[in-house]
Amino acid sequence: MASTDTFPYTDDTQFCECCERELHSDRIVWLELSFVTSQYASLDNDTIPADESQGCFPFGKACAAKVLRQQDRIRPDGTSIRKGYTEASEPWAVVE
What are phi and psi of 33, to 5 degrees? Predict the structure, then answer.
């Protein structure tokens, strides 16, 4: 069994919610998740009411941009504007 003294991660280590890569503190983008809509929002636009917030989750810059861009393509019924895709088929989607 490996010694815990050599474990490379600390409690402060953050991993991207999308790709699970380790994030450097200067490259973390925090996105807030709404448990009502199952969609992420940037903290800059303050669109999720406090009573609907699931909390904030860390993403890398590229993954955050991808998640925000792709979730805009999902219709309220869970289907995508891209033919053949549904919310369940998207790897980044939160499915209830």
Answer: -105, 130
CA pseudo-torsion sign 43, 26, 58, 77: positive
Residue 16 confidence (pLDDT): 94
Residues whose CB falls within 8 Å of the CB of residue 79, separated by 6 or more in sequence, listed in order = 85, 86, 87
First to last CA, the chain: 38
Residue matched to tokens 């940037």? 42
pTM listed for this prediction: 0.65
DSSP H or E stretch at residue 94: none
Helix or strand or coil: residue 30? strand
User: Could you tell me the residue ranges of all domains in the chain?
Assistant: 11-89
pLDDT tens for each residue of 63-86: 998 888 887 766 666 555 554 455
What residue type is 25 in one-letter code?
A: S
31 within 8 A of 67, measured Cβ to Cβ: yes
Strands of the chain, DSSP E:
14-15, 22-23, 29-34, 40-42, 53-59
